Amino acid sequence: xxxxEKKIEEAQEPIPEEEKTNAETEEKEEGESFSFSSxxxxxxxxxxxxxxxxxxxxxxxxxxVTVSGTSMTDTLQDQDRLLITNFMYQPQYGDIxxxxxxxxxxxxxxxxVIATQGQSLSINYDTGEVSVDGVxxxxxxxxxxxxxxxxxxxxxxxxxxxxxxxxGDNREGSLDSRSSQIxxxxxENIIGKAQARFYPFDKTGSVY
Length: 208
Fold this sequence. Notes:
CATH superfamily of the largest domain: Umud Fragment, subunit A
Radius of gyration: 34 Å
Helix content: 25-40%
Structural class: alpha+beta
Number of strands: 11
Strand content: 15-25%
CATH class of the largest domain: Mainly Beta
CATH architecture of the largest domain: Ribbon
Distance between the termini: 99 Å
Order of helices and strands: HHEEEEEEEEEEE
């Protein structure tokens, strides 16, 4: 057999079984390592997208607030936590809204919209009845009687454009638009409308 034929025969000799097993193991480990890296990369990417989505949602569409005080009892309790929305919001009667602090109060307040721009409002402090556009409101949500507050506001014939009249549901324990200390609320000062309570957990759900 010539020298060249010996070289060809040697080159064609089968790879020992042990070497094949080692090579296959290495390839398998490399494949598993690549798959795990891909999984971690995809998981990280998904988490980042979710975080950005939640941030945008909380910044532009809804926020969370904590109720402070008892002016909205029994509807809401002190330390209840709420989700509020403000995207394209226009106030309507019955909405529970969060209002930025004003000149007479340091912290945001939460009240219910009773009348909006262009509506007439009157309060009969003898009977506690509240009328909007001549119709007596049915207010099953209130606690106590709608009483006159100190520094009573002189209610205009019609609520001016860009303003709302608000009151707390706890009518005997709420400082609100009945008083000149709060007065009519500029719509631009409304942070958002309360939608749902998420704490305490046994009271989660809509606040309406």
